[in-house]
Amino acid sequence: MNNLLLINIMVEIIIITFIILQKNNESFIYFNSILINITYLLLLIYFLNSLTLLCLS
């Protein structure tokens, strides 16, 4: 459970850094938007996993 929470925090930090990168570098908007979409999907998966673990415990 603690590992999932740590992974959630790490993914959120990654998303924040990608958003900052996207605001700073306009030439990398397309590349960063792809990465942001991937990280949002990962965050959703980890969030659902942690929810199911909470429900099971």
Could you explain how this protein is built, in words?
The protein is an all-alpha fold and 57 residues long. The chain has one domain. It has helices at 2-24, 29-56. Helix 1 (2-24) packs antiparallel against helix 2. The chain is elongated, with a radius of gyration of 14 Å. The termini are close together.
Q: What amount of the residues lies in strands?
A: under 5%
Structure summary, number of beta strands: 0
- Biggest pleated sheet: none
Mean pLDDT: 73
Distinct helical segment count = 2
Estimate the helix proportion, in percent. Answer: over 70%
**N-to-C terminal Cα separation, in Å?**
10 Å
Helix/strand/pairing class, anyone? mainly alpha
Low-confidence stretches: none
Order of helices and strands: HH
Shape: elongated
Q: What count of domains describes the coordinates?
A: 1
The value of Rg in angstroms is 14 Å
Keywords: Membrane, Transmembrane, Transmembrane helix
Question: Can you give keywords for this protein?
Answer:
57 residues, mainly alpha, elongated
